[in-house]
Amino acid sequence: MKRLFLPEDFTPESIWLYYERSQAALAALRREVLANPSLFPLFQGMSVPEFEESLRDTRQELDSQVTMALIASFEAIIRLNFRGRISRRLKDPTSKRLRGLARAWRPGEAHKASLEQILDIWKQAVGNAQTIGRFKQLLKFRHWLAHGRYWAQTSGITPEPDPEMAWEIGSALFKKLPGFPQLN
């Protein structure tokens, strides 16, 4: 199957590289601020415990943002696969079911099909209800993150996902779905 197009800066791999670089930058910032606090006016007046708490908060927010970006990039891959199977009119049973889903919408509106519906078709095709169910929980978590976190988080996924967990769940899903990229 043809490689899906995603902007280079929005592939799961590029998001992961950003995450690793951001973690390294936070570690370097910690070392520099503790060694030369007067060079960093943003942190002046903070005690060491206050500074450490500030870094923990920053790291927690970084984790949330990267988790959200990873899940969104996984969603993009699934939707691009969906569109590709529709446009190329592939003859396999899964592609036929996906085209049936697309026909439920007016012409040009297949993009309105929910990701859950697309995943349900894949669940019928490959089984693995647990892997797909776990990914659906991750989607609910992303929805909660993306829309302001103002209601109780009810995705059912525990512990709260971090980038590593999101990567593992997305990678496990893509291993089960034929024609999807394999994440390293």
Compact summary:
With 184 residues, the protein is mainly α. The protein has helices spanning 12-35, 48-87, 93-103, 115-126, 129-146, 163-176.
Describe the structure.
This protein is mainly α. It has one domain (9-176). Helices cover 65% and strands 0% of the residues. It has helices at residues 12-35, 48-87, 93-103, 115-126, 129-146, 163-176. It is elongated and about 65 Å long. The chain starts with 11 loop residues before the first helix and ends in an 8-residue tail after the last helix. The model has no long low-confidence stretch (mean pLDDT 89).
- The backbone outline, from C-alpha atoms, is elongated
**Parts with pLDDT < 50 across at least 5 consecutive residues:** none
Mean pLDDT across every amino acid position:
89
End-to-end separation: 19 Å
Structure summary, number of beta strands: 0
* Total discrete domains: 1
Largest sheet: none
Strand content: under 5%
Structural class: mainly alpha
User: Nearest-angstrom radius of gyration?
Assistant: 20 Å
User: Number of helical segments?
Assistant: 6
Strand/helix succession: HHHHHH
Q: How helix-rich are the residues, as a percent range?
A: 55-70%
What brief labels describe this structure?
184 residues, mainly alpha, elongated
Topology summary:
Layout lengths: L11 H24 L12 H40 L5 H11 L11 H12 L2 H18 L16 H14 L8
Helix pairs in contact: 1-2, 2-5, 2-6, 3-4, 5-6
